[in-house]
MSHA biogenesis protein MshP (Thermotomaculum hydrothermale), 118 residues
Amino acid sequence: MFRSQKGISVVTAIFIITVIAIVGTILAVQVITQSEETGNEYLSTQALYYAESGAYSAMIDIYTNNSLTQSTYDFGNGRANLTVSQNGNLWIIESEGICGDTSTEKYARRKLRVIYRH
């Protein structure tokens, strides 16, 4: 090896280690971001299911009792809040599904409206 080339292998090794570290950091950030997005999608889907379940429960309640007897349905780690109005034989059911811990930012809300003829 020539005298002028002795330090080149150290510089090359440092460069390669730096590139590998940068690529590793980028991949780690991507994995963390996708994991959070998956969690948010799960909460949002569960909130929609809770809203749908609340609306269906309200329709059964209206069909059975001709009125709404509950305005909130609890489903383990979530709930459905209901608002109902009546116009003749049409019932407008607004159901808001909430999933997760509302005291933190790890929760989701989904709303839907159902027009039910009874």
